[in-house]
Amino acid sequence: MLFDKPFSDVTFDDIQKLSDEQIEESMILDYKQQLNDYSIIKQVTAFSNTKGGYLVYGVMETGKGGHPQSINGIDGDLNKERLEQIILGNIVPRVSVQIKKIPIPDTDRVILLVHIPEGQSKPYYNNQDKRYYKRYNFSATPMDENEVEWLYQSRFFGTSKLERYIDEAIYFSQNKLPHELQLHGIEGHVVITPLKIDGQMFEPSPKFGHELMELHSDKVEDCTSYLSYSIRPSKFGIKWDDEDPLRNASNKVEIHRNGLVHSMKICGSFFKENSVKRFDDELLACNLLQTIRFTSTFYSKINYIGNVKIMVKIFNCVNSILTNGENEYTEQIKCDSEEVLVERQWDSWKLEEDSLLIAKYIMDEISNYYGLWSSRLFHEEEGIIKYGV
Prior knowledge:
Elements: H1 12-20, E1 29-32, H2 37-48, E2 53-57, E3 59-61, E4 68-71, E5 74-75, H3 80-90, E6 91-92, E7 98-103, E8 109-116, E9 125-126, E10 131-136, E11 139-142, H4 145-175, H5 179-182, E12 187-194, H6 206-219, E13 230-233, E14 237-241, E15 252-256, E16 261-266, E17 268-271, E18 276-280, H7 281-301, E19 307-315, E20 320-323, E21 339-347, H8 355-368, E22 378-381, E23 384-387
Parallel strand pairs: 1-2, 18-20
Antiparallel strand pairs: 2-8, 3-4, 5-8, 6-9, 7-8, 9-10, 10-11, 12-16, 12-19, 13-14, 14-15, 15-16, 17-18, 19-21, 22-23
Helix pairs in contact: 2-3, 6-7, 7-8
């Protein structure tokens, strides 16, 4: 990390420190005296296609590859939201960037700091000038055909590898359960994962697990039930579960060494006396919200920033009806799918802030399987999404 603190906490003192310590431009750092729309699209594309990094606008360097010579800033009236839309609208596929305006003390000018994580869906295409760029020799340089082709092959391989990993590590055992065991309950799986799963992001240990539990408890009210199970090592990393040996299944939360988070909860049951299968959407929505917020805490602890995939998969829901835990809906519309899968992609640093929005999108789509336009669990008041019946 260039700055040893969260991006949102970076101040002018941190920028001044770059000058005082004569930190030179590098593969992950570029100083720019002025800002223009064309330049930032080109630079963001190059950083995304390489190792990611930081753009610091409002700083004049001593020369190409040099250190800050003066910090004059740029116009403080800059519209940050407009700039974000310019970036999002001109780079394909969609990139993930963090942008912050840092006021220069005793002036009306600002430093514009842009953090570009390494892209997980390379190559990224500058749709404005129809080129692919990479970061090379302190500048954005056009890529050749061989480099572009290699990145496309890597993207395809990475997507296939992620899908295969999830199937084998999470869903394989469920698909192999005998039918009579599947009738014990409807399983709701929530998976949040980086798009790339190569490498190890943390070292599993009791200390790490307990520190993560404490951080999550401090940030979210009434979250004790989410991690109330026993903590233990697993072949993937760390898990909290209430293992049921009779079903080879459990309510559990698990973090994998590669950054994947998986939570599974029983969110419905089959009642033999009246042959009714009931799906409790409130249990699933609660688990989804908790998992999103827990994952945000986890990623903050391991300093991961990037695009993530959010998946909710429900097993054994065919012929089930929605229930709120006590009473069924009057429509009594049954789900006609054996499995339900809903996916979204999001920026990791926006997970906690957007948790209600993400959960609403996903639960609305799940509700469609039961003949409802939207989930009963979310509503808007003056443009603010709220959760609760």
